[in-house]
Amino acid sequence: MQLNQYAWLDEPKAKIGANLPPAMLMHGLTGVGKRTLALHLAQSALCEKVSLLQTPCETCPSCRLFQAETHPDFKILSNDESDASADDVRASTNKKTKQVIGVKTVRELGTFCYTKPHRGHAKIIIIDPADNLNQNASNALLKNLEEPAEFLHFILLAKHSESLIPTILSRCLKVHVKSPELKITSSWIEQQSSHDHIDEHKKELAIRLSGCAPFASTKLIEDVDFFEHRDKILSLLSQTPINAFSLAALCEKIETPVIQRIFYPLLHDLLMIGLGGDMVFHKDKVAEITRIKRSLTPKRITHWQDNFNDYLKSANHPLNRRLALEALFLKWPQT
Ligand SMILES: [Zn+2]
């Protein structure tokens, strides 16, 4: 795993220094490259030709085992199916993943933590995401962190450092993996893309919605469903009067995080233009937004936003999702 294409990961790597600490927490947005950096570090530490976390050689037996995902001194605990994938994008808008890494998974580390390395001097465990460790899993992990074998290194990945319990946090070196600036993410996407032309509006929207996280932005640009859903919702909201039942029927088919990702930027931009400012997320949809805005006042928009937030709180309740959505859209402020 080479890092030369990911210049923004140099800074967090430099913070780690020349040796892996017993435990480290890398935190940063989804799709910023935490998994990529963690895999790079793990392979470097296990490489038989280089030392001090230099770039792994890619040719020694250890690097080959690592590339084949069969290294006996490396483990990755994850809640997604493709847990050995090279990047940390789980920003997928329609793939369902389990939310929690449970105590059973952590306990399954078992003897791995206490038996000596098969090949070199290190054993490495990546936990991704560490945000979702439940209480029992956190306690089981804490046991390993409290009495770590000298060869053992934990790399925890999380979106927010606060989501870990303080007793785990206090044992970790904390490294923030920051998103690059919009311009840098944008030119990185251009370089990576196999397409001749990427729609500039779409690209900028994807970057802004992903907080400039490069992998997440790329993923979102390619997410045809997301843009289709967004177009349909904007088109239905542009009608006068809006049809709450059609909107509810459409939104019922869309996962809640996607709905959230469509409506928060929409409400933001409606408020911005209501207050005389500029749109940020809908520069490609000026006509639709103008129609949707109609005579909506900022006050009415924020009022509906409160209703939307209430809906989100109960959105994972499997009963009556359609009815809840209908009730929500019936409250859409019409003139
Ligand atoms: Zn090597």
Structure description:
The chain is of the alpha/beta class and 335 residues long. The longest helix has 19 residues, at 256-274. The chain has a 5-stranded parallel beta sheet, covered by helices on one side. The protein folds into 3 domains: 7-176, 3-Layer(aba) Sandwich (Rossmann fold), CATH 3.40.50.300; 182-221; 224-330, Up-down Bundle (Zinc Finger, Delta Prime, domain 3). It has 15 helices and 5 strands. Bound molecules: zinc ion (ZN).
Give the SSE layout:
Layout: H1 10-16, E1 23-27, H2 34-46, H3 61-67, E2 74-78, H4 103-107, E3 123-128, H5 135-146, E4 152-158, H6 166-169, E5 173-176, H7 182-192, H8 200-209, H9 214-221, H10 224-238, H11 244-252, H12 256-274, H13 286-293, H14 298-313, H15 321-330
Parallel strand pairs: 1-4, 1-5, 2-3, 3-4
Tags for this entry?
single chain, 335 residues, alpha/beta, Rossmann fold, Zinc Finger, Delta Prime, domain 3, 3 domains, five-stranded parallel sheet, 15 helices, 5 strands, elongated, binds zinc ion
How does CATH name the architecture of the largest domain? 3-Layer(aba) Sandwich
Number of helical segments? Answer: 15
Q: Which ions and ligands are bound to the chains?
A: zinc ion
Q: How are the strands of the biggest sheet laid out side by side?
A: 2-3-4-1-5
What's the overall average pLDDT, rounded? 89
Identify the CATH homologous superfamily of the largest domain. Answer: P-loop containing nucleotide triphosphate hydrolases
The CATH class of the largest domain, by name, is Alpha Beta
Based on secondary structure, the structural category is alpha/beta
Radius of gyration: 23 Å
Globally, the shape reads elongated
**Percentage of residues in DSSP E strands:** 5-15%
